[in-house]
Specification:
two-stranded antiparallel sheet, single chain, 14 strands
Length: about 220
């Protein structure tokens, strides 16, 4: 009788463990990239310059394969000078508060921008500036102005893509990964900033929704 009771308790604990495991396997447990803070940069002397810094976490190695890995902090700098420079890489001066360092930006032909990841998270209330030749780009955290913050964007994205998300559950396990980024058609115009919420399955299929950071009713699915 005692053995039966022990076996029953072990069985119930096993069932409870499975149920709890399934219950905690949320979509948001599988975020492979998320932007928390978004800085926008302008050069007062050259209105053609568009720049941004996206701050958050993303997986390493960064592979969009539907499998969530280990996340690391990032600060992705993106600078478009409004003209094509001859150099494939440039050395700029990055100033964060009173700290000054030299960093290398690499040219990305897909966006005609110079980019780099600092490998750490810049705080949400820092004085950030980039100097290069005659350019002086001052950055401001504009994500504090968003009507739709990253938490709300996650909720809206999951709701709009609920059918696809549900299809990625296999035996109670979510076999996919989530990406949430800020996309700008024109960094000089706040109205063109969108959250891009993406869901990637292990079969390589990806579905996206773009949500206006100032109007949750302005969204696009593809």
């Amino acid at each position: 009788m005692k053995k039966f009771k022990i076996l029953l308790v072990v069985t119930l604990l096993g069932v409870l463990f499975v149920l709890v495991g399934c219950g905690t396997n949320k979509v948001t447990d599988n975020i492979s990239e998320i932007t928390y803070v978004y800085y926008q940069g302008i050069d007062e002397q050259d209105k053609n310059v568009n720049a941004s810094i996206s701050v958050g976490q993303r997986e390493e190695p960064y592979i969009m394969d539907g499998k969530h890995g280990t996340n690391l902090d990032f600060s992705l700098i993106n600078v478009n000078f409004g003209r094509v420079l001859e150099e494939d890489s440039i050395e700029v001066e990055l100033i964060i508060n009173d700290n000054i360092e030299k960093i290398i930006l690499e040219f990305n032909p897909l966006s005609n921008s110079y980019m780099t990841d600092l490998g750490y998270s810049i705080g949400s209330n820092e004085n950030v500036q980039i100097k290069y030749q005659n350019y002086k780009i001052n950055f401001k955290n504009v994500s504090d102005l968003f009507k739709v913050n990253y938490e709300k964007a996650l909720e809206i994205g999951q709701d709009l893509l609920s059918d696809y998300i549900d299809s990625l559950y296999v035996n109670g396990i979510f076999e996919g990964e989530i990406y949430l980024k800020v996309f700008s058609q024109n960094s000089g115009n706040f109205d063109n900033l969108y959250w891009i919420f993406s869901v990637v399955g292990r079969n390589g299929q990806c579905e996206n929704v773009a949500i206006n950071v100032f109007d949750e009713n302005d969204f696009y699915k593809n």
